[in-house]
Predict the structure.
Amino acid sequence: MTELTEQTRRLISCSSLVLVASVDAEGNCDVSPRGGPAGFVAVLDARTVAIPDATGSKRLDSLQNVIATGPARLLFVIPARTMTLRVNGRACVSTRPELLSQLTAVGKPPASALVLGIEEVYPHCPKALLCSGAWKPEQWLPAEPSRPRPR
């Protein structure tokens, strides 16, 4: 699809995690997670989404890559659902106050936002999440992996 449907808008509104893939001028790929309360990614219209740049690790790889080359790929992850949503397109970094004032999912406007002009949207096969057991607590590793005991 080349634009968001009602169903894909609902998936975005349920997502609290999106992985942002971008590439720098030398062709090096970066994938960075962005998270917030469900619906923190704003759907501006059927062909545009905006991801607020929340304070975090202070890494600017994705923003620098988008400024340098333009394309970005998004993978929306929906907690407790194996369905993911892929959104691909051309991106830019915006600091427009009228846009940023709309992106207050974390309580205040961000300093900037990654704005993606959608070129392609599609649900992604759930097989990887099904195989991973990511949503099954009984398959999670313990917080402190046990260490082998010396003999």
